[in-house]
Design a protein that fits this description.
The complex is a heterodimer of chains A (246) and B (408). By secondary structure, chain A is mostly beta strands. Chain A has one helix at residues 240-243, and strands at 10-12, 17-22, 27-32, 43-46, 59-61, 66-71, 74-79, 90-93, 99-107, 112-117, 121-126, 137-139, 152-155, 160-165, 178-183, 194-196, 206-212, 217-222, 227-232. Chain A starts with 9 loop residues before the first strand and ends with a helix. By secondary structure, chain B is mainly β. Chain B is built from one helix and 31 strands. Classes of the chains: A mainly beta (246), B mainly beta (408). Strand 19 (227-232) of chain A pairs antiparallel with strand 3 of chain B, so a sheet runs across the interface.
Chain lengths: 246, 408
Amino acid sequence: MLSRTMHDIRYNAVDDEILVPNPFSNAILVFRGGADGQEAPIRIIQGPNTELNGADRLDIDLEHREIFVPQPGTILVFPLDGKGDVRPKRVIRGADTQIEGRSIAVDPIHNLVATTGRDQSIVIFDRTANGNVKPLHWIKGPNTQIDRINQMAAYPAGKLLVVAMPGRQGDMEPPRVFVGMWNLDDDGDVSPKWTITGKQTGLKKPFAVAINPDHKEIYVTDMRLNGVMAFSVPEVFKPAAETRGR
Amino acid sequence: MTFKRWTVVSILLAGTTLAGVLVQVRTRESNIDKKPVRYIKDPNPAWSSIAVNAENNMVVMTDENLFRVVEYSRLDNTPPKARFTEPKRIISGNQTRMEMLCGSYIDPKTLDVYVVNNDTQDWMPVFSKNAKGNVAPDRLLATPHRSWGIAGDDARQELYITIQFPSAIAVYRKTAANNDAPIRMIEGDATELADPHGIALDMKEDILIVANHGHRRFYGGAAVSTLGTETWEQWIGKTTYDLNTLPRRYLPGLGKFDLPSINIYARGANGNTAPLRVIKGPNTQLNWPSHVAVYEDRGEIFVANDADDSILVFRTSDSGDAAPIRVIKGPKTKVKNPTGLSLDVKNGELWVANMGNFAATVFPINADGDVAPIRTIRGGPADQVGLMIGNPGAVGYDSKRQQILVPN
């Protein structure tokens, strides 16, 4: 049931499960954590009540047991154990939200959820937001240097958002690519706090990011290289209290 | 059918040198510019499609890993102890407009090579028979996002291109270039197209054959087609960048997992047209059917059955839950994640491009069962397997097993 197009994957460490969206069939697939070979998913979220419409990314909140799914102009929130034709628990949608909805990351400690906003931006909402609500924070402007955002990940202990910036769609080797990191309470036209980019990194078109706080590593996939890199970045993995005010 | 192709990575490769030219980015704290502590990358090709021109002993393959078009001689055969066979020519580089290559076609008269990009470059580059190295294409056609398969109709001078999503087939004049519109589209709920991939024409029976992975979404109601109320310019956009941002009228939630299928249409099908017949069901053994080819004289359809490590052969007259009449599969075949397939009727040979072991394997056209290939062209060492990391659009971390999850 997996398609050749998979733009997100998340591991649920509490239930030992893997979640993958299938945008072509409007579905969220849940596999056993140890799944191998041609193994069927243990749950599928799919059907007209789900309102899924081309969603190809997601994130999970293990604290509150929810799945967050971005899609154009919308964030859908499902129960983590949702199955079948389940209705979303909450839907953030409407003109005030400024949501573009290409990617998503959830911080369950600070009750924040970030997604991509209109005009190359990041919008951040209260985790429990519902309906046509304005974002709490809107990171937008030339200083952000955002061209396009693919996968996002949150580091809740550091109140940090990590995003993959692969450059403009269609460029073979875009001149501006980076892994960018903002505080989840950043607002306005602000540069990223940290970036990973440059000749030494070898990054050409970073498509995705995942974090490993235990080993203080960030994993990056690069489309142009068809490769996976592990960066050791202990300087990034600091509790929010240590970095406050910077 | 279920198939998982995420790569579970726990291999550590350190110290690999990488290169790149990047614009300096402004930060509040600092930029981290250092080598990765581990770098996982397959140095070998991942063959995604193959085209054969028997008259000129020409074999062309697309490489989805290293973004290359390579040409071999039809008679090449890699010795068992050799690391690989050197191609006659390689087209590759940032001038070529090639990245995630999925389909290829050789014009039988000009020997021009047409290649289809999927997902990251919305172009079909065309290269002359003399093109080599990092060269600009002789011609470019803007193709819809997620184009995949290609077939040529040399009698009508037309090109057929499959589009994974929104599921469609675009038919162009063979000379189409730039933002030229297709001359017809097959698209809509009635077509039963479901994430279409390979495509082939049977000129003798006047039919069109399309392999589908089975992922469906429905327009619903009167909105049966993207092009129903839009002009091509609106659909294709002013630039290919627009292709990602155009709204679609799919109804929320109307998605479905269907079984993989081979759909057969009239060659001249147009619009929201139902297939003449559909080969679909558990007996078919279809599992991620990829490129397809037709042996017209014998009335046979060959299918590269990616997720089953097999080649299936059906009759062109088959319909419904038909079992294949022949299956090439097993350890002797060296068939591993076959995505590409081409027939050389003149010499009675079947060519298979294997993504899983960077080998092109050649069989008699009537091969059946667990049979060894009669020739093999390898792009990498025989004792290695392909990582199959292709357009890795996401990454995850399994903290329990300390493994990196990479969907492709």
